[in-house]
Amino acid sequence: MDISTDLCGIALDGPVLNGSGTYDALAARRAFGEALDRDFPFSAFVSKTITGPPRDGNPPHRLWETPSGMINSIGLPNPGLESFVSGDLPQLVGLPVPLIVSVMADSVEGFVTLIEAVAAVEGVAGIELNVSCPNVHSGLIVGEQPTETEALMKALRPLTSLPLIVKLTPNVANPENVALAAEAGGADAVSLINTLKATAIDPDRNRPWLGAGGGGLSGPAIRPIALAQVRIVSAAVTIPVVGMGGITDGESALEFILAGARVVAVGTENFRDPAAGIAVRNGLSAALERRGFASLAEAQASTLS
Question: 252 near 223, Cβ under 8 Å?
């Protein structure tokens, strides 16, 4: 079964990526060595989200398990741009698959600094823009306002020829409007969905369990919502869609392809099984065959009819 594909011109031997921040490739490499390079779980690797200054993340507690997933309130801890470029990035470009670096800022100027620094490193294949932070100038969350999203893209697009992938939030009434704005501004692809706003109550203290009060729900519980939004967005835009939200196996991955996603990303399942990407990739071939497709490309094309 041929499951090779591409994303914005990035050649991939399969359509399974990781969700940003859900898989530590460098720790896995230290643990498994050459075995990881021989059978890397994903066809492209998306880094954890990097910000300009370092971030400690949210106070504990940061995780809460739900019946069909989890709520996380990690808060994007990272070493900051300078430390990332000098430390982790040279190692990440040495992975056996294309590297997509995820970045986030609270202003256009902050994004410009991140894009210019990351794009200058040879071996980076693409950049994911996490637009979930409020713009310090307008007070509006960029990824929730189409005009803010388009303006950001128009400012960043001239800075690099690398593919720019905008990560969309599901916490809006009409995500297709934000996706269309990203496309109008020059985005090469969009990815969705990010986590849904959620909280959990401590059964012993009768107060929110998470240190920040709330967090984002992910896992199989959000899959039907993710599928609906991927279907709506992919029908609205002409650029590729990266589908994610509760993918656990080849069958659920194929559902996203049939909903209009060109490729998919595995997130929460990586916490349960570090080899989840391999299981999804292998299961996808079986799922394609079971549903009568001769290749991944045939399933991708079927969403256009």
Answer: yes
Alpha helices by DSSP H, 2-157: 25-32, 34-38, 81-86, 88-92, 108-119, 146-156
At 117, the amino acid letter reads A
Per the CB < 8 A criterion, the answer to whether 84 and 2 are in contact is no
Q: Amino acid identity, residue 206?
A: N
Question: What's the pLDDT at 35?
Answer: 85
Burial 254-287 (b: 16+ CB within 10 A, else e): bbbbbbbbbbbbbbbbbbeebebbebbbbbbbeb
Catalytic residue among 50, 99, 103, 133: 133
Helix ranges, the chain (H): 25-32, 34-38, 81-86, 88-92, 108-119, 146-156, 175-185, 223-236, 250-259, 269-272, 276-290, 296-302
**Which residues neighbour 99 within 8 Å (Cβ) at sequence distance 6 or greater?**
44, 45, 47, 92, 93, 123, 124, 125, 126
Model pLDDT, residue 267: 97
Nearest by Cα to 171 from 242, 245, 103, 258: 245
Give pLDDT, residue 32.
87
What is residue 244's DSSP assignment?
A: E
- What domains are there in the chain, each with its CATH number? 5-58+75-196+218-302 (3.20.20.70)
The C-alpha atoms of residue 180 and residue 241 are separated, in whole angstroms, by 12
Helix (H, G, I), strand (E, B) or coil at 14: coil
Q: What confidence score (pLDDT) does residue 168 get?
A: 94
* Res 305: pLDDT: 42
* Mean pLDDT of each 10-residue bin along the chain, 305 residues long: 96 98 94 87 97 94 94 93 97 96 95 98 97 66 90 97 96 95 98 94 94 94 97 97 98 98 97 94 97 96 70
Clarify whether 133 is annotated catalytic.
yes
